[in-house]
């Protein structure tokens, strides 16, 4: 493996696939390996896909015992006017001054994309949308969604509310991994409330390609988007497409991306769990380097028939500075086919590297100076 120092992340090669989506990313669920991306780190308006973060907060509150699925939350006038039928947006048609169980509100957010349901949950948990948004942002930081900021639980337009395709895919992976007991809600085909039956807005659930989640979104400014997941055999993929012109185009581009990802790649077990991929230099540490490992097994998903074209490199901004903590993401494995980047996977420090003693730090300083003047 070639060790390269890089401060910029290059665009992933399109690998013989094109999409009309303005933003797109396709990830292997288990490893987080990016198979395809298009402007995956560009800031976007998440629209109702922001409700995935609302659900993440709600599920965390339920798990903690502070909220129960059978709790009933009050339908305020604010929730009724801002997210109800008169608002013109997606709604549960909740009755003003009624009480609704948390489980029904959760189902509405997922299936109907109910803005009123999202606000009712936010007010029931945190008192106001603003306080709930603070909880959303705290959780986003905790799970590493560095490109996202939330202002409300609905995804209704706000200039200070944004995310990225990569963050939305990671958020989808977080929900699937951390809350499997609630994941079945995402694949329910329809929900009826107040005598009004609404189909799941994720139309790919009914197509028969294994899609079982997660969330769609749309505003006039942002276009149509979706966070989608499919399980085929022992492999799950998570995709994001956004910035499309219609519901039909959203479904078609999502289907194409998932189908391509499922069929166009072969799986290779490159490194078993705990195997050191390479070593990164550490400046001023007790050890002069640290092993780099994956988060579990590193499986490569490579274009079929591409074994002869492969090369790989490990990229990090280095040398690393101590202390380096075991499990800290410090590098990235990049796999190329004929000099085109076809896959990337995060790498983590295999062990702790504390700061070294004066001799070690002086020695490394001399090495740095010896090389720096050239």
Automatic annotation (TrEMBL):
Top-rank taxon, per record: Bacteria
Keywords: Carboxypeptidase, Cell shape, Cell wall biogenesis/degradation, Hydrolase, Peptidoglycan synthesis, Protease, Signal
Single GO MF annotation: serine-type D-Ala-D-Ala carboxypeptidase activity
EC number: 3.4.16.4
UniProt entry tagged with the keyword Cell wall biogenesis/degradation: yes
InterPro entries, per the entry: Beta-lactam/transpept-like (IPR012338), Peniciliin-bd_prot_C_sf (IPR015956), Peptidase_S11 (IPR018044), Peptidase_S11_C (IPR012907), Peptidase_S11_C_sf (IPR037167), Peptidase_S11_N (IPR001967)
Signal peptide positions (record): none
Active site per database record: 48 (acyl-ester intermediate), 51 (proton acceptor), 113
Family in the record: Belongs to the peptidase S11 family.
Name of the protein in its database record: serine-type D-Ala-D-Ala carboxypeptidase
Function: Removes C-terminal D-alanyl residues from sugar-peptide cell wall precursors.
Species in which this protein is naturally found: Devosia riboflavina
């Amino acid at each position: 493996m070639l060790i390269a120092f890089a401060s910029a992340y290059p665009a992933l090669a399109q690998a013989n696939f094109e999409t009309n989506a303005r933003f797109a990313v396709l990830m292997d669920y288990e490893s987080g390996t990016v198979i395809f991306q298009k402007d995956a780190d560009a800031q976007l308006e998440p629209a109702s896909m922001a409700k995935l973060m609302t659900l993440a907060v709600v599920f965390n509150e339920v798990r903690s015992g502070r909220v129960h699925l059978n709790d009933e939350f009050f339908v305020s006038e604010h929730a009724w006017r801002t997210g109800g039928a008169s608002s013109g947006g997606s709604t549960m048609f909740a009755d003003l001054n009624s009480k609704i169980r948390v489980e029904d509100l959760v189902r509405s957010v997922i299936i109907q994309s109910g803005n009123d349901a999202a606000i009712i949950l936010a007010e029931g948990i945190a008192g106001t949308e603003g306080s709930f948004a603070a909880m959303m942002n705290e959780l986003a930081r905790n799970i590493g969604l560095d490109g996202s900021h939330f202002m409300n639980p609905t995804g209704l337009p706000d200039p200070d509310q944004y995310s990225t395709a990569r963050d939305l895919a990671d958020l989808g992976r977080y929900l699937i991994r951390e809350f499997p007991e609630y994941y079945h809600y995402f694949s329910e085909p329809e929900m009826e409330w107040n005598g009004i039956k609404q189909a799941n807005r994720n139309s790919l659930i009914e197509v028969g390609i294994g899609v079982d989640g997660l969330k769609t979104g749309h505003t006039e400014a942002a276009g149509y988007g979706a966070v989608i997941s499919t399980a085929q055999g022992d492999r799950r993929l998570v995709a994001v497409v956004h910035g499309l012109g219609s519901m039909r185009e959203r479904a078609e581009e999502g289907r194409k991306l998932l189908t391509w990802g499922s069929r166009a790649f072969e799986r290779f077990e490159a490194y078993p769990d705990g195997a050191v991929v390479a070593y990164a230099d550490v400046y001023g540490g007790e050890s002069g380097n640290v092993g780099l490992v994956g988060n579990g097994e590193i499986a490569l998903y490579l274009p079929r028939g591409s074994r002869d074209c492969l090369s790989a490199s490990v990229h990090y901004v280095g040398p690393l500075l101590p202390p380096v903590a075991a499990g800290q993401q410090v590098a990235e494995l990049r796999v190329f086919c004929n000099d085109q980047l076809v896959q990337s996977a995060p790498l983590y420090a295999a062990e702790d590297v504390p700061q070294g003693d004066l001799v070690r730090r002086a020695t490394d300083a001399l090495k740095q100076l010896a090389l720096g003047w050239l």
